[in-house]
Amino acid sequence: MWEYQHAAETTAAPEAVWRVWADVESWPEWNDGVERIRIDGPFEAGTTFAMTPPGDEPITMRLVEVVPGEVFTDELDAGDFLVTTVHRLEPLPGGGTRVVYRTEITGPAAGAVGPELGPRITGDFPDVVAALARRAEG
Length: 138
Known about the structure:
Layout (H helix, E strand, L loop, with lengths): L1 E9 L3 H9 L4 H4 L5 E4 L8 E5 L6 E9 L3 E7 L4 E10 L5 E10 L3 H13 L2 H13 L1
Antiparallel strand pairs: 1-7, 2-3, 3-4, 4-5, 5-6, 6-7
Helix pairs in contact: 1-4
């Protein structure tokens, strides 16, 4: 298994951050790692979406958990490995939110692909979370 987590705090309320996440079509406006995105239904568990990183091919993922205002989890099932990313909101005492992005790569090929693929997936998490916070603080 390969894993990585990044967390940062924002003055935005969890509800404000959630609104930014739930507006999937706007992700390319604030997330430089998303050139295009297409979601095939509502922002709820079971819905698939195709995300295109800049200069790359689309990647199809599935929402496996969505708890409005709290967490959403997506998965990329590549057959011999599974990439799971949890996006969690933790309210802070006195206001604001701790935003947590956590990625795990599991499965038979995780040991082989994780050390190379993991950092490519998660390398921009600090920038993405910072941009998300700025957008939510609006």
